[in-house]
């Protein structure tokens, strides 16, 4: 049985903001199915009472002294922007997205 | 004058400090070498000729003023294109960052500059460091100097090939699942992955933040240790940076070079010593282990029963973190923007930008990670993979109670021909079978040349406990005394 359907892949692409076309959907669905069936092997390990590890080196409450240091200038911060206006990042409209 | 491109980094540093050769001469010799061979190898995405000569002249001027130079002052270095270099193009080999010039330097770049090292340019890689062959670069493949029709490994194929082809004596790589070590193995170079948190991630374009580790690429073990010493150590700008001094890696490499391993206990990972590796790789690794025994090491077999689940766990954890990290490429603050015609919404522009900017492997991994983190699947996939990560760490801890270091092949196969694994992504993932457990555990590991199979280099991987990076350098340097040095690669293809 397939681990993932073409419809699910289309849904994932939407969630991840990837405008994947119809041909690519077929390819990705097949490939992701192979990968998911292989990685599902993690489920074979009995680990009900095992704590999860998110970071290998346990460090907590890592703080540094709160001293003023030079940061990027506005010009530097905007230097890589695809579009800027009045010293700000300019973005396409964000309202009426469903229209 | 001797050909300085053939010298080690340690020798170059000594020659520059003593005035035997100038930093500018050394830099120009390497730039000439790049001009001669890089149209065949394509290790570099960008060569910073003017920046390199300016940096070299500064070293020569400092020496003329009587300033004392550090051990690597004036020594050229190539930098993987995933490291932010102020004012110098940084793309992570992705179309989505084409033309981006970072307004800041990564911490390791600041340290490389402070040491007086000379950056030659930026090296090719798999896009966002996702891959094992450098075939997923958006800017064309890098070719293996040993056979131009084969892959140089990945993701850091450019750094490894640059060093193997004598275009640079040193390079920087980054290792998330083997991206320093596997290219090292298949190009006959040294690739060292420090302890996670031992080298700063500040300014490293993030792939999988709980795994990413920058480290040295070189042609010999001492050079790797010298570079490790330069880039390592605590960085307040990286909250996962370990607040402790760099382990004594240079001293350990010098100790190892005496060729005496008396009293060193080496563990052979049973699960990685049977089938899985090509026969020629397994044979070269067996010979290397015999050489270590002759140097006085004691070899015992140890069992790490959960290592077989490392690859599946990694391909859930790393894509999950990637799907989150790569959300920042939204066409707003830097890089590409596609489809902004004044009519389309932000969401549409974002989707078109990401589709145009990301290659197939990055797209696959973002979707895989999005899936593994979605509600309903989280516990079965990402949650379970994190528990497996705990079990793998316990395997390492138990093994290191019995032995000082663990050894295995670095990768199951020698450099493979272009195109042989791209159609089946999971076949590509198998290249990292032996390197991934270390990343999940967080410890250090190094790949060193261990001979050849079918005329192509084979690497031995040496793994050490967390923050005991010195141990792997000692064993690696000792092996170097027992293995005949590789002849420089021919820079020809098998099909040509």
From TrEMBL, chain A:
The molecular function terms of the Gene Ontology recorded here are:
ATP binding; glutaminyl-tRNA synthase (glutamine-hydrolyzing) activity
Q: Which reaction does it catalyse?
A: L-aspartyl-tRNA(Asn) + L-glutamine + ATP + H2O = L-asparaginyl-tRNA(Asn) + L-glutamate + ADP + phosphate + 2 H(+); L-glutamyl-tRNA(Gln) + L-glutamine + ATP + H2O = L-glutaminyl-tRNA(Gln) + L-glutamate + ADP + phosphate + H(+)
Q: Where is the sequence biased in composition, kind Basic and acidic residues?
A: 85-99
Q: Name one GO biological process term.
A: glutaminyl-tRNAGln biosynthesis via transamidation
**Ranges for region Disordered:** 74-99
What InterPro entries does UniProt report for this protein, alphabetically?
Asp/Glu-ADT_sf_sub_c, GatC
Give the residues annotated as coiled coil: none
What SUPFAM superfamilies is this protein classified in? Glu-tRNAGln amidotransferase C subunit
Alphabetical keyword list: ATP-binding, Ligase, Nucleotide-binding, Protein biosynthesis
- What EC number(s) has UniProt assigned to this enzyme? 6.3.5.-
Instruction: Quote the subunit structure annotation.
Output: Heterotrimer of A, B and C subunits.
Q: What does this protein do?
A: Allows the formation of correctly charged Asn-tRNA(Asn) or Gln-tRNA(Gln) through the transamidation of misacylated Asp-tRNA(Asn) or Glu-tRNA(Gln) in organisms which lack either or both of asparaginyl-tRNA or glutaminyl-tRNA synthetases. The reaction takes place in the presence of glutamine and ATP through an activated phospho-Asp-tRNA(Asn) or phospho-Glu-tRNA(Gln).
Which protein family is named in the record? Belongs to the GatC family.
Q: What is this protein called?
A: Aspartyl/glutamyl-tRNA(Asn/Gln) amidotransferase subunit C
Where does this protein come from, organism-wise? Planosporangium flavigriseum
Q: In the UniProt record, what gene is named as encoding this protein?
A: gatC
């Amino acid at each position: 049985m397939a681990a993932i359907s073409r419809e699910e892949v289309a849904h994932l692409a939407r969630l991840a903001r990837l405008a994947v076309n119809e041909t690519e959907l077929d390819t990705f669905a097949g490939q992701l199915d192979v990968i998911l069936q292989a990685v599902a092997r993690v489920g074979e390990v009995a680990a009900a009472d095992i704590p999860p590890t998110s970071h290998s080196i346990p460090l907590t409450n890592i703080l540094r002294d709160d001293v003023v240091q030079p940061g990027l200038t506005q010009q530097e911060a905007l230097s890589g922007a695809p579009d800027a206006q009045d010293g700000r990042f300019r973005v396409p409209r964000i309202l009426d997205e469903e229209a | 004058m001797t050909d300085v491109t053939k010298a080690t980094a340690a020798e170059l540093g000594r020659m520059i400090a003593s005035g035997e050769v100038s930093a500018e001469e050394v830099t120009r010799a390497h730039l000439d070498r790049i001009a001669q061979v890089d149209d065949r190898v394509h290790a570099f995405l960008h060569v910073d000729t003017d920046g390199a000569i300016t940096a070299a002249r500064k070293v020569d001027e400092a020496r003329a003023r009587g300033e004392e130079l550090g051990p690597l002052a004036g020594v050229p270095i190539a930098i993987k294109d995933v490291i932010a270099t102020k004012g110098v193009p940084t793309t992570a080999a992705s179309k989505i960052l084409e033309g981006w010039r970072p307004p800041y330097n990564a911490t390791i770049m600041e340290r490389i500059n402070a040491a007086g090292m000379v950056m030659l340019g930026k090296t090719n890689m798999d896009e966002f460091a996702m891959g094992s062959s450098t075939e997923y670069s958006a800017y064309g493949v890098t070719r293996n100097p040993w056979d131009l029709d084969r892959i140089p490994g990945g993701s850091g194929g450019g750094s490894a090939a640059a060093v193997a082809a004598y275009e640079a004596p040193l390079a920087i790589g980054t290792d998330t699942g083997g991206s320093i070590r596997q290219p090292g193995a298949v190009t006959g170079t040294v690739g060292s992955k420090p302890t996670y948190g031992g080298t700063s991630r500040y300014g490293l374009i993030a792939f999988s933040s709980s795994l990413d580790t920058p480290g040295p690429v070189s042609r010999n073990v001492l050079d790797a240790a010298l570079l490790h010493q330069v880039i390592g150590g605590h960085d307040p700008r990286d909250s996962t940076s370990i607040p402790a001094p760099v382990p004594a890696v240079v001293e350990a490499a010098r100790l190892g070079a005496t060729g005496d391993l008396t009293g060193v206990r080496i563990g052979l990972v049973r699960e990685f010593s049977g089938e899985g590796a090509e026969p020629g790789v397994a044979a070269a690794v067996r010979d290397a282990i015999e050489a270590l025994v002759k140097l006085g090491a004691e070899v015992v077999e140890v069992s790490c029963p959960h290592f077989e689940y490392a690859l599946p766990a990694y391909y859930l954890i790393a894509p999950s973190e990637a799907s989150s990290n790569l959300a920042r490429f939204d066409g707003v603050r830097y890089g590409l923007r596609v489809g902004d015609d004044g009519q389309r919404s932000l969401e549409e522009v974002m989707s078109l930008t990401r589709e145009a900017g990301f290659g197939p492997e990055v797209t696959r991994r973002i979707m895989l990670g999005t899936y593994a983190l979605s509600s309903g699947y989280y516990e079965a996939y990402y949650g379970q993979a994190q528990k497996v990560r705990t079990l793998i760490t316990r395997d390492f801890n138990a093994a290191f109670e019995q032995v000082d270091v663990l050894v295995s092949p670095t990768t199951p196969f020698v450099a493979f021909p272009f195109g042989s694994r791209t159609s089946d992504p999971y076949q590509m993932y198998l290249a990292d079978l032996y390197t991934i457990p270390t990343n999940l555990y967080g410890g250090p590991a190094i790949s060193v040349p261990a001979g050849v199979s079918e005329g192509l280099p084979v690497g031995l991987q040496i793994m050490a406990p967390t923050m005991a990076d010195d141990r792997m350098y000692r064993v690696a340097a000792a092996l170097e005394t027992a293995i005949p040095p590789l002849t420089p690669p021919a820079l020809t293809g098998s099909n040509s």
